[in-house]
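Researcher: We plan to redesign the surface later, but first we want a full-length starting point. Tokens attached.
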């Protein structure tokens, strides 16, 4: 029998499925729950155990990991008679890897403490590719001792693993990450349209740009999306819209001005309003194309 902690995984979406599978590959016993039967079947095929409910998934777990879209979903799975806090055992560790508001994380940690459950907020960056390759950047908020206990789990999921401060700090850093990513994608999208309208070989231009100061992980990861107009979702516009709301609200609360971020937040919102919310966030290119006269 393995001495590794038993893990319950709640939320098996684009990110959650490959992440849970990487834990199985690392030797962890993973019991999962999600709303989609095909995702449960995928977990079982990878060597995990599908549970019929949150309560069943978390009952015997040493560590509960959640990866759901937003604050309302975290609250829905955490609270109430069928939720994590009522059914996980005392002394267990809850790691929320969703991207939510910092205040939601703070409130969850407080409520969990009253139940004898420890909490880390641990959102990630790297998208679907980073999840599959186990090279995610993981930004964590919570207690040092809990971080130390969870570090081997994080090491099976990512490469850059940093405790950023107390509860909510991981979410604050993730909000800043999403600000940088959105602005970067927008700049890349504008460059692509500019280059194409100028008659430049786009492949050659992006290759040389990515080798200089304009290069970035965003350009590396999204270059083919731009070249091929392939917007299969790795990270949906709908989710980035949610994240831009988080960072603009949080910045307002602390008195930080985000002039460029506010503009990009509106561009993300406009793309969503035009029916592109289910596309990858590299589809910001479509918004620039429309503004530049293209009929899409």
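Model: Full-length starting sequence:
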């Amino acid at each position: 029998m393995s001495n590794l902690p038993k893990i319950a995984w709640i939320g098996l979406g684009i990110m959650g499925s490959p992440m849970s599978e990487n834990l199985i590959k690392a030797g962890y016993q993973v019991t999962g729950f999600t709303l989609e039967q095909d995702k449960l079947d995928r977990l079982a095929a990878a060597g995990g155990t599908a549970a019929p409910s949150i309560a069943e998934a978390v009952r015997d777990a040493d560590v509960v990991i959640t990866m759901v879209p937003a604050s309302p979903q975290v609250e829905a799975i955490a609270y109430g008679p069928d939720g994590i806090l009522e059914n996980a055992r005392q002394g267990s560790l809850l790691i929320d890897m969703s991207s939510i508001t910092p205040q939601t994380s703070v409130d969850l940690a407080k409520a969990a403490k009253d139940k004898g459950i420890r909490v880390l907020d641990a959102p990630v960056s790297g998208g679907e590719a980073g999840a599959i390759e186990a090279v995610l950047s993981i930004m964590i908020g919570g207690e040092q001792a809990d971080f130390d206990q969870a570090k081997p789990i994080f090491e099976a999921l990512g490469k850059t693993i940093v405790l950023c401060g107390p509860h909510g700090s991981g979410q604050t850093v993730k909000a800043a990450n999403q600000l940088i990513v959105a602005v970067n994608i927008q700049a890349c999208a504008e460059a692509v349209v500019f280059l194409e309208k100028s008659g430049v070989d786009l492949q050659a231009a992006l290759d040389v740009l990515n080798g200089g100061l304009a290069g970035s992980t965003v350009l590396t990861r999204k270059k083919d999306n731009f070249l091929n107009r392939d917007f299969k979702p790795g990270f949906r516009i709908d989710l980035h819209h949610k994240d831009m709301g988080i960072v603009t609200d949080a910045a307002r609360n602390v008195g930080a001005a985000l002039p460029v971020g506010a503009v990009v937040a509106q561009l993300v919102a406009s793309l969503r309003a035009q029916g592109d919310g289910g596309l990858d966030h590299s589809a910001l290119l479509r918004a620039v194309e429309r503004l530049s006269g293209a009929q899409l």
